Every structure is written in structure tokens, then in C-alpha cells.
Task: inverse folding
């Protein structure tokens, strides 16, 4: 809507007719004072205002409008019967006016200017709406993000409490089953059931321990007891454990002897055990596993190779992520998808890194590196 401000009713009439003929909605005010009242009540795209009016003149009105946040951006076209004097023009601009047209008015020129201002007004209006929507969207996302973070924190807390709570009854279950096992006769048929139960309890225990480790990592509470470790012993011990539980697998150890590292022995055992357990788990048809140790630029590099199902290129960079399981493998192999995540966190804390090479259908080699304690 355009506000026409003029003290002469004939001028108002002719301007109103001209603008409405070109489909511009208009409103009118016969004085500066009246114009101010209207502007405070309604919003206008443009004001066309006579400069010389009894009472408040056009410049005074413009000055007041330019001092008010709600009205300071309304463009104004001043109309004046007097000759254009630089002093007037400057005064007009300073007081918030934007354009200046002399009387007698050339309708074409006035219309051209009105159209320009109207277009500007429309563009501004659209920009403001877009800006408003953006602001709302940002606010909405911020709230959603905060809610998601809070939910994730609650989930982590739940996981931590649940795993703690599960550990205690599981430990007593294990103790009772062990007692039962001991009290049975050597040839008792029930023994095989008891052994299978113990086996399942151990699996459950390993799953809960992994979940607790994830929660400890997330809370920065994974503790490390550092000592000087003889790496050959560590590899031999862990390999022996796997040989005991999987006697059908052929595990060969090659590479450098006499390597020492400084680190947490139990945690490094956990990493190697995880690599070997995965090598067994994901190669059901080829029962050969190789463990190789080498020293490179004062880094110990351990490689565990299997000749199993392998991992596609896309998933190779993801497997060390928390809860990641390669698509398809989750239907055939049990797991939570946290083992490699825990391994990579443990190795990171030892200032080393984890990586892999793999080819689907041919097998995988998982590596980890650690700073060596001795230069051989
Ligand atoms: P989990 O074995 O419990 O699922 P991990 O974190 O140990 O969890 O491994 C993540 C995923 O990486 C596995 O689900 C599996 O898809 C893939 N993976 C790990 N080791 C191997 C391997 N040796 N061969 C093929 N795929 C593997």
C-alpha cells in the first residue's frame, strides 16, 4: 500500500487515480500529523509526500520516521512545487527520504519511480521472510540437535548402568555353574550341558565387557597400566589362547623377535585377541591364519591375515567405527560391531594406528602399529 500525503485534495485525487489505474493500492493523509498517525497503525511500501504543507512539513515528517525503527526503512518520494535546490535535496535524503520529484508532476516519471520502489519493497519483503524462515529453521535445528545429544547421553548412561548391573548376576551364575561342574561325576552326561552353559556365559560376559569398554571410552575412563612388555610373549600367549578354543585353525607366527613395547599388557592382548577372533570368525572355510611382526622406523607393525570372506572397498574405511558391521555379514556372524572400535581406541592411546587390507572372497589383513621401546 502507498501512502499519499498532501494538503491539497485535488493533488491527492489525481495521484490516487493515477496509481490506482496502475493497480497500486493507496491510502491518503491530508497533513504531516495525520501521515504519522497512519504510519504507526499500518505498514506502507512507499510514501509519496508533499514537501510544503501547513503545520508539519514533509521533511519534518521524514525526520521523525527515520528516527523510528519500525518506519525508518519506508522509502519516501518528496513532491515539491519549488525549484530543486541542492539544500532541499540533501535535507530530504538526510531525513530518510530517498527520491525527489518536482511539480508539475510528469506521470510517467513518477510511475517509473513508484515501480522501482515497489519492486525494492517486494524484494525486501521476500528477503525478510526468507531470513525469518532461516532463523526459525536454525532455532528448530538447534533444539533438535540438543534433544538428540541429550537422548544420546541418556542412551550411553543406560548402556553403562545396564552393563554394570548385568555383570554381577552373571558372575554369580558363572560361579554356581563352576561349582555344579566340580560336583558332577566325571562321566556324568550332564557335564556336557554344564560346559556348554559355561561357554555361553563366557560369551555373554565378553559382550558385556565390550559394552562397558565402549562406555568407558566415551566417558574417558578407560584406564591403562603401562609397563615394559615383551612382545614375543604377548603374541605367543594370545595365539595359544586361540589354539585352545579353536584347535581346527592353523596359526603361524613369523617375523621379528625380541621386540619390546611400553603399554598396557592386558589391553594390547585384548587388541590381538580381537584381531585373531575376527580372523577365525570371518573365515569359516579356510582355517589358516598368519601373524606377522615387523619393525619399521622404530614402529612395531603387527599383521593378522586370514583367507576368509574379506571386506568390500566401501566398508573398509568404516569397520573401526562404533557399532559398524559390514552389510550382509551381520546375518551370518554374531557380534555387536564394537570390537574393532575398542581396538582402535586402545591403539590410539598407545600412539599407534590401525588399518587393513582386504579383498572380498580372498581374505583380510588387519594391522596395528605401536612405537617400539627398543631400537633393534
Ligand atoms: P563384530 O565382529 O562384533 O561385528 P568388530 O568391530 O570386530 O565387530 O568388526 C566390525 C565388522 O568388521 C564386522 O561386523 C565384520 O563385518 C567386519 N570384519 C572384522 N574383521 C573381519 C575379518 N577378519 N574379515 C572380514 N570382515 C571382518
Result:
Amino acid at each position: 500500500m502507498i501512502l499519499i500525503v498532501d494538503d491539497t485534495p485535488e493533488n491527492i485525487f489525481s495521484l490516487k487515480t493515477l496509481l490506482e489505474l496502475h493497480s497500486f493500492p493507496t491510502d491518503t493523509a491530508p497533513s504531516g500529523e495525520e501521515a504519522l498517525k497512519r504510519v504507526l497503525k499500518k505498514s506502507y511500501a512507499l510514501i509519496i509526500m508533499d514537501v510544503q504543507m501547513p503545520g508539519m512539513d514533509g521533511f519534518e515528517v521524514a525526520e521523525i520516521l527515520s528516527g523510528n525503527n519500525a518506519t525508518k526503512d519506508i522509502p519516501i518520494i518528496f513532491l515539491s512545487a519549488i525549484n530543486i535546490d541542492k539544500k532541499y535535496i540533501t535535507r530530504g535524503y538526510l531525513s530518510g527520504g530517498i527520491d525527489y520529484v518536482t511539480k508539475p508532476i510528469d506521470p510517467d516519471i513518477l510511475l517509473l519511480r513508484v515501480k522501482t520502489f515497489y519492486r525494492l519493497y517486494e524484494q525486501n519483503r521476500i528477503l525478510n521472510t526468507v531470513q525469518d524462515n532461516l532463523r526459525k529453521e536454525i532455532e528448530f535445528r538447534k533444539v533438535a540437535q540438543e534433544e538428540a545429544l541429550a537422548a544420546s547421553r541418556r542412551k550411553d548412561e543406560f548402556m553403562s548402568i545396564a552393563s554394570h548391573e548385568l555383570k554381577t548376576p552373571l558372575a554369580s551364575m558363572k560361579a554356581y555353574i563352576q561349582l555344579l561342574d566340580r560336583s558332577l561325576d566325571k562321566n556324568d552326561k550332564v557335564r556336557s550341558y554344564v560346559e556348554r552353559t559355561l561357554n555361553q556365559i563366557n560369551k555373554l560376559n565378553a559382550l558385556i565387557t565390550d559394552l562397558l569398554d565402549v562406555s568407558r571410552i566415551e566417558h574417558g575412563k578407560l584406564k591403562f597400566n603401562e609397563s615394559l612388555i615383551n612382545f614375543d610373549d604377548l603374541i605367543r600367549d594370545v595365539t595359544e589362547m586361540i589354539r585352545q578354543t579353536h584347535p581346527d585353525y592353523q596359526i603361524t607366527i613369523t617375523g621379528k623377535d625380541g621386540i619390546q613395547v611400553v603399554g598396557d599388557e592386558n589391553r594390547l592382548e585384548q587388541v590381538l585377541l580381537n584381531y585373531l577372533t575376527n580372523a577365525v570368525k570371518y573365515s569359516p572355510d579356510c582355517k589358516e591364519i598368519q601373524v606377522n611382526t615387523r619393525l619399521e622406523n622404530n614402529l612395531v607393525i603387527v599383521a593378522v591375515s586370514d583367507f576368509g570372506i574379506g571386506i568390500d572397498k566401501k566398508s573398509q574405511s568404516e569397520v573401526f567405527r562404533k557399532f559398524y558391521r559390514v552389510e550382509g555379514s551381520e546375518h551370518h556372524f554374531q557380534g555387536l560391531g564394537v570390537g574393532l572400535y575398542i581396538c582402535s581406541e586402545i591403539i590410539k592411546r598407545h600412539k599407534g594406528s590401525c588399518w587393513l587390507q582386504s579383498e572380498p572372497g580372498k581374505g583380510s589383513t588387519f594391522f596395528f602399529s605401536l612405537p617400539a621401546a627398543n631400537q633393534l
About this structure: The chain has eleven helices and twelve strands. The CA atoms of residues 51 and 242 lie 97 Å apart. Residues 278-279, 282, 306, 308-311, 319, 324-326, 329, 335-341, 364 surround adenosine-5'-diphosphate (CB under 6 Å).
